[in-house]
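User: Could you go from structure to sequence for me? I need the amino acid at each position, not a summary. Structure tokens:
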């Protein structure tokens, strides 16, 4: 429905003549109204939102007017023309707004947004004012999904007319966004000019060329988009159709310490993984050992991997509008989204055992290895591979009626039913992993001092050979996530004679979310059969140093980069047919199970009502006031299928795995909460160009799906020190934030302005993931058991896993829990050792969510937009500074509850637009931020500061034909994530520039 606004002031009329989204003031003195009631040529200024202003200048002007004329603090981006959004990706467009930062996919595409330091899970995304479902799969297409975040990579930008970012709470917006409520607006035929347009793009992603040949896709892929919009029956009936299909072949390459860092204080003496204390063990081989009060970390593994990614994204939208009468408008719309992704990976990795070796360390108080080495003999050179295929889809069907009952009353009713689904899209489930190894590795050393870790292995002459390689363990997974939103909204506005207005409404929203997973894991990590069981021509040799040229050190002569790439399908088929003396061939071990072993089904039912009063006090400096309140009541019901663990099996030197009962059981739970959410927005017009705003609002952010699940779970992999697990709480309360904003805005010229704003968020009910050490009472581990202790007594070291396993197999094969299957290619004994009654009960670090903490964040937003007269040149720049008490303390090893995603950010856009030319260069920068916690306990993961330059050039050959050239990540920037010290790498990622040549024709 239309928002009630009175006839605009002169300054507002000027803005309206420039852009589609101009908005008027609510009340004026009689003289002013008399002078502005009729626009030039008799046009009613309240209908000037149909004026079509195109181009970069028009887009920036419309965005400025959206900010200027809004209630509260609102920023946005408006399409430069029908079918032409500033960026091809909505997230990458949103990052141009002050206070908005984005998370990128590993292949470099904008995906999710953080607003004012509040992460993606606590920003609510609407499509034409409707709450949208969000579905995602876990990392690598595996596991359960907890996130509520909306993935903007699924949406094409062609059918989007504007995106509005509401940074302050409003009673008439659905609840759920603490950082912001983001409303994506699409084209409406009765509100747009008739158009038929067709766009074609050729895309070259340079990252695709930086891959082994069997992982590469096409050098050039295509994108096709089209828009049709037309009105009929004298403007009473309208049809808008839009569709797009894009294919992109890309890649990314990473150096990783994926398993994280085991972290200790310098005086740690009880944990066998810690460095020996001075005077003990191999302490004489440690240079600059961490001091007793220092914090240090030892790596579990280090790896290089190369990844080929293919993506096919299809979007379509149909909108039908009908005006049966002048005061009634009905709208029926349908939106379809499909995003398919296939990924194939090859890797080279080394695993450490926390054993003896030489090492050199940085100074404290956070000490990290400069050089780290461990003694090895006949260990594995791991060269696993992965094949992933997933499909994300969304369907949204909605109906809306706007009814202007009379001059004083407007009513609106809206209903929609929307579903988002993420599921496997390949023959092996959502993701399949084949472990591959050659057991020829000797002493292994890594230099962590540079941006890229340098791995060196002592290997036989010639390095790794195909004749040495065989399959080890394997993991095939099926993951599934479906989210469904059914929403009903009734709204109204009553206008009083004094130009004040009362907004009111009621709503009902039901969200159903299902997240499920299943896993088939074969724990033959010591090797499946012998190298002779596999054809040598399945593999071909390559070198990792070729694929990290954006990092210094890629050509270091110390690097051991040789690895084997393999045909995943052929190798999977051969592994499925390999039989050993201990077990027959197992074809079913190499496909994902079809029945889910974990299944969370949650329903949220929310009822809401709101009222908001708006008026203007015509003082010497007019004061615009909006005061409202929203009531929100939510009921939660969760059902979770949980697996019943039965034992722990030790399958190889570093692999302990939980075994499960074949059948699980469903566990249920409920929760309920209700909140009153007030808001107050003030805007003082100091003069026609200067405005002072102040806002207060209360907003809520709902917990993640696994946080409110019923039941508990343990993770599949266990280490010598125990395992990890989690359990949820359906009774969790949402986060509650009291938000305060104060800003000054100066609109000093045509399409030019400057603003400064301060914001503060006082957040309570912060959900903390407390880690509790628990045990099931029945899961016995071989570590520290009778067989284990006997092996130590025979002379095996506590960290010498191959020695311990060989002793147990030699002396206890066939005894309870001990199954000996032979020897691998390195001569090590293989088989499983299962914990027995009387062995120690394994402990699990169980993550338990609870509403425990309160804190605040505050920040400043600075923005300027300036057009240099009629020269065609202009710029837009902004900077956001955010700080909070919710930060991570690197010097603490205990549980912490920081705010994820908190960072400063800045943008600079410079452009030239004149005659047929448009040139736009956009630089985005985001400071270092905490992107998560994990990697062997409560360790931080920091993403280093990152900046990216994008360039867009277009030339209008005629009024109908436009040519364009775009470059994304023009300077080939890399991304890097680390733990407590920059030497404690987690991920170093290289992608590459992306280029697009486009042709757009308007009929």
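Assistant: Here is the amino acid at each position, in order:
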């Amino acid at each position: 429905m239309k928002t009630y606004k009175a006839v605009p002031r002169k300054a507002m009329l000027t803005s309206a003549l420039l852009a589609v989204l101009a908005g008027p003031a609510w009340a004026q003195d009689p003289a002013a109204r008399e002078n502005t009631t009729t626009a030039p040529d008799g046009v009613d200024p309240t209908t000037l939102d149909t004026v079509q202003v195109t181009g970069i200048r028009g887009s920036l002007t419309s965005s400025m007017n959206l900010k200027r004329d809004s209630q509260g603090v609102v920023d946005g981006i408006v399409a430069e023309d029908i079918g032409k959004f500033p960026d091809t990706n909505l997230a990458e467009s949103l990052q141009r707004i002050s206070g908005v930062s984005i998370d990128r996919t590993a292949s470099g595409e904008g995906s999710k947004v953080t607003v004012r330091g509040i992460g993606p899970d606590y920003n609510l995304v609407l499509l034409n004012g409707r709450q949208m479902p969000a579905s995602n799969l876990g990392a690598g297409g595996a596991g359960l999904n907890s996130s509520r975040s909306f993935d903007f990579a699924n949406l094409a930008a062609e059918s989007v007319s504007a995106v509005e970012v509401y940074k302050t709470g409003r009673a008439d917006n659905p609840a759920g966004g603490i950082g912001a409520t983001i409303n994506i607006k699409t084209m409406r035929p009765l509100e747009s000019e008739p158009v038929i347009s067709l766009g074609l793009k050729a895309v070259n992603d340079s990252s695709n060329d930086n891959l082994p040949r069997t992982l590469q896709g096409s050098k050039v892929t295509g994108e096709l988009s089209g828009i049709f919009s037309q009105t009929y029956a004298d403007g009473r009936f309208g049809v808008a159709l839009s569709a797009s299909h894009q294919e992109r072949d890309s890649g990314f390459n990473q150096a990783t310490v994926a398993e994280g860092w085991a972290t200790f204080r310098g005086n740690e003496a009880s944990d066998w993984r810690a460095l020996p204390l001075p005077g003990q063990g191999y302490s004489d081989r440690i240079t600059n050992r961490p001091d007793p009060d220092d914090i240090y970390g030892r790596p579990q593994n280090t790896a290089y991997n190369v990844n080929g990614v293919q993506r096919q994204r299809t979007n379509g939208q149909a909108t039908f509008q009908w005006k049966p009468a002048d005061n009634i408008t009905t709208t029926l719309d349908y939106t379809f989204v499909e995003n398919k992704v296939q990924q194939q990976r090859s890797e080279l990795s080394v695993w450490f055992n926390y054993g003896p070796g030489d090492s050199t360390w940085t100074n404290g108080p956070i000490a990290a290895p400069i050089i780290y080495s461990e003694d090895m003999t006949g260990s594995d050179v791991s060269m696993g591979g992965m094949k992933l295929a997933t499909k994300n889809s969304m369907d949204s069907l909605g109906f809306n009626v706007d009814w202007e009952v009379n001059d004083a009353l407007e009513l609106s009713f809206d209903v929609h039913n929307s579903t988002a689904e993420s599921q496997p899209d390949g023959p092996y489930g959502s993701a399949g992993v084949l472990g591959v190894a050659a057991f020829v590795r000797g002493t292994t050393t890594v230099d962590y001092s540079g941006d890229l870790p340098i791995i060196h292995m002592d290997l036989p002459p010639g390095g790794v050979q195909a004749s040495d390689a065989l399959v080890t363990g394997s993991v095939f997974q099926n993951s599934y996530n479906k989210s469904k939103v059914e929403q009903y909204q009734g709204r109204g506005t009553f206008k009083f004679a004094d130009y004040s207005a009362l907004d009111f409404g009621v709503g009902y929203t039901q969200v159903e979310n299902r997240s499920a997973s299943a896993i088939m894991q074969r724990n033959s990590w010591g090797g499946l059969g012998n190298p002779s069981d596999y054809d040598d021509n399945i593999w071909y040799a390559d070198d990792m140093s070729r694929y990290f040229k954006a990092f210094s050190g890629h050509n270091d002569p110390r690097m051991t980069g040789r690895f084997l790439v393999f045909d995943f399908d052929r190798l999977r088929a051969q592994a499925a047919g390999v039989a050993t003396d201990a077990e027959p061939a197992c074809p079913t071990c190499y496909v994902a199970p079809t029945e889910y072993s974990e299944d969370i089904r949650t329903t949220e039912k929310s009822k809401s009502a709101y009222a908001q009063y708006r008026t203007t006090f015509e003082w010497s400096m007019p004061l615009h006031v909006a005061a409202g309140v929203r009531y929100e009541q939510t009921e939660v019901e969760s059902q979770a299928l949980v697996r019943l663990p039965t034992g722990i099996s030790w399958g190889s030197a570093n692999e302990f795995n939980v075994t499960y009962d074949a059948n699980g059981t469903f566990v249920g739970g409920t929760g309920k909460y209700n909140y009153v959410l007030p808001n107050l927005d003030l805007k003082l017009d100091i003069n026609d160009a200067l405005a002072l705003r102040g806002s207060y609002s209360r907003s809520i952010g709902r917990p993640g799906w696994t946080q409110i699940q019923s039941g508990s779970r343990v993770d599949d992999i266990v280490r010598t020190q125990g395992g990890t697990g989690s359990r949820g709480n359906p009774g969790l309360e949402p986060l509650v934030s009291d938000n305060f904003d104060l800003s000054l805005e100066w609109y000093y010229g045509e399409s030019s302005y400057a603003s400064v704003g301060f914001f503060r968020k006082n957040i309570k009910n912060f959900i903390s993931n407390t880690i509790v050490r628990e045990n099931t009472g029945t899961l016995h581990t071989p570590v520290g058991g009778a067989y284990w202790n006997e092996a130590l007594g025979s002379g095996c070291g506590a960290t010498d896993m191959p020695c311990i396993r060989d002793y147990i197999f030699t002396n206890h094969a066939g005894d309870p829990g001990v199954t000996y299957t032979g020897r691998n290619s390195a001569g090590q004994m293989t088989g499983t050792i299962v914990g027995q009654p009387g062995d120690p009960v394994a402990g699990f670090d169980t993550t338990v969510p609870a509403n425990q903490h309160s804190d605040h964040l505050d920040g400043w937003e600075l923005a300027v937009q300036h057009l240099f007269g009629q020269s065609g040149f202009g710029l837009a720049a902004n900077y956001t500074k955010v700080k909070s008490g919710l930060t991570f303390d690197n010097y603490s090893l205990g549980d912490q509850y920081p705010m994820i995603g908190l960072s400063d950010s800045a943008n600079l856009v410079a452009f030239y637009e004149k005659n047929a030319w448009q040139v736009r260069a956009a630089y985005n920068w985001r400071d270092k931020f905490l992107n998560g916690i994990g990697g062997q306990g409560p360790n931080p993961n920091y993403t280093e500061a990152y900046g990216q330059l994008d360039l867009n050039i277009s030339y209008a050959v005629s009024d109908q034909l436009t040519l364009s050239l775009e470059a994304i990540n023009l300077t080939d920037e890399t991304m890097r994530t680390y733990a407590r010290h920059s030497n404690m790498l987690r991920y170093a990622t290289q992608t590459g520039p992306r280029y697009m040549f486009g042709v757009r024709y308007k009929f």
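One structural detail worth keeping in mind: The longest helix spans residues 55-69.
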